[in-house]
Amino acid sequence: MPDKTVRDFVAAYLRPHRPRLALLAVLFLVGIGLQLANPQLAKTFIDQASAGAPFDRLLRIAGVFLAVALLTQVATVAEIYVAEDLGWRTTNALRVDLTAHVLALDDGFHADHGAGELLERIDGDVAAIAGFWPCCGARTGGSVACSPRTRWRASPTSPAAAASSVVGRASPGS
Q: Which of 17, 25, 97, 158 is the most buried (most CB within 10 A)?
């Protein structure tokens, strides 16, 4: 399938679920933001402790650190739930369309292929797609899209190190 055909095919099944797709994108970005916040809080805690900050200030920083860690877990669970739900909804629509297509085929096709074979092909192939989308598709696509920015955000104390990491990653042969 050419890229445009694949894109149109995927878009046709995702279009009815745009609100869930938008929620998934928001949860993904919130999760990344929270994951990037905690190392900065740890750095702040260490810097403040080294500078002799009052105990109550350190306690507040530690409390924020724990709250961000908890929110990170909540965002991750919510992201997984929404991705799984979206995967099931879209693949169920695909199952319906494939079943309607197979039922519309001529009698010769049904004589050559048993009901069990057809069921296995429709459900088995779609189940493989359903397992791939939430696990690998969304995570990998989002991680690749955010990779250079994430490296820069993760290293605000060393922009040169972040830049060399991004440039090194983008260089030929890497």
A: 17
Phi, psi of 75 (to 5 degrees): -65, -40
Contact of 45 with 62, CB cutoff 8 Å: yes
Phi and psi based region of residue 72 (left: phi greater than 0; alpha: psi -120 to 50; beta: remaining): alpha
Annotated domain spans of the chain: 3-169
How far apart are the C-alpha atoms of 24 and 134, rounded to whole Å? 10
Could you tell me which residues come within 8 angstroms of residue 38 by beta carbon, excluding any fewer than 6 positions away?
A: 65, 68, 69, 72
- As averages over each run of 10 residues, the pLDDT of the chain (174 residues) reads 76 90 93 94 95 95 96 94 89 89 89 87 79 60 55 46 44 44
CATH (residue range 3-169): 1.20.1560.10
Q: Which residues contact 117 (CB under 8 A, 6 or more apart)?
A: none
